[in-house]
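quick one, 310 residues, struct below
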Amino acid sequence: MIVTVTPNTCLDRTLVVPEFTINKTIRAGNWAIGMGGKAADASWILGEYGLPSIALGFKAGITGLQMEQMLQSRRVQTDFTEVDGETRLNTVIVMEDGSGQSTFSVSSLIVRPTHIHDLETRYESILEQADCVVIGGTLPAGVSDELFFKLIARARKRQIPVIFDASGSALRKGLEAKPTLVKPNRDELEEFTGRRLNSLTDIHLAGKEIQAVYGCSVVVTLGGDGTLAVLPERDWLIPVLPVDVVSTAGAGDGMLAGMAAALSSGRPMEEGLRLGSAMAGAVCMQLATADCRKADIEALSSKVQLVPFA
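---
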C-alpha cells in the first residue's frame, strides 16, 4: 500500500482570466477546484489511475472536509488528523492567452503539539501496511522541519522506500533522514545548492552531489525542459511530452505518483519515470490542479522517451 503524508493540506481554486490589473474587477472565463499539497496530489492522481493509497496529514474546517471527500471519491483511504483553523484554499490564476500562471497561497492551519503526536501515532500504525511512502509539501506555521525528518526516518528504519518533495530548510532536514528519492524542481534545487543552475550539466552536477552526500536518487522536474533523473545505475533526461497545456499546477506531483507506483511494487525506477511523465503530461491537460484522466495517462505512456544523460 502507498502511504502519502501531507502536513499542510489544501485545495486549489483555479481561475482563468483575460488580464490581471489592480483596482479592477476581473471576470474569470472558467474556473475549477482541484487537489493541492504535493503528497495528497499523488494520492489524487493514483486514485484516478486505479491504484490504492492511504492519505494522512492535518486537515481542518469545511475546506478540509471537502478535500477529504474528494480523495475518498477516488477511493483513496483517508486517516487525517483534525486540527484547528482551516485547510488552505489557494487561488491559481491562469492567463487566457497562455502567457503564464501564478498561485496565491495562504497559511490557515493551526497545529498544536497534541496534533503532531496524533499524526505520528497514526503514521506509525499505518507503516505496517506500507510498501512506499510519499511525504511532501510545506509545513503549517509552528510545525518544525523535524517532523519531516522523523517521518522519513521511521519508514527508512523499516526499509520502506520514501519519496520526498519539499523545499528550503525542510528539504535539507528531510534529506538528513536519507529518503530513497527526492524530487525538487529547478528553483528548489537552486535554493538548496545556493547557486544558479544555468544548464542541464549544472543541474546534473547538483543532483550527483546530493546523491553522493545523502545516498538518494534525485529527480528534477524542469517544466518545459522535461525531467532530469539521477538514479543509482544510470541517469536520464526525459523530454517534455507534446500536450496542449491548460495548467501546469500539480504536474510535478504526477512524477511523485508514478515513482510511488513503481517503488511500491518493486519495479525499476525507469518504469516510474515513464508512468510519472505520462501522469504529469495528463495533469497539464486539465484545468484543476493535479487533475487528470486515466485514458490520457495511458495514451501518453507510449510517447515518453528516456534519453541517457552522461
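The first strand starts at residue 2 and ends at 6.
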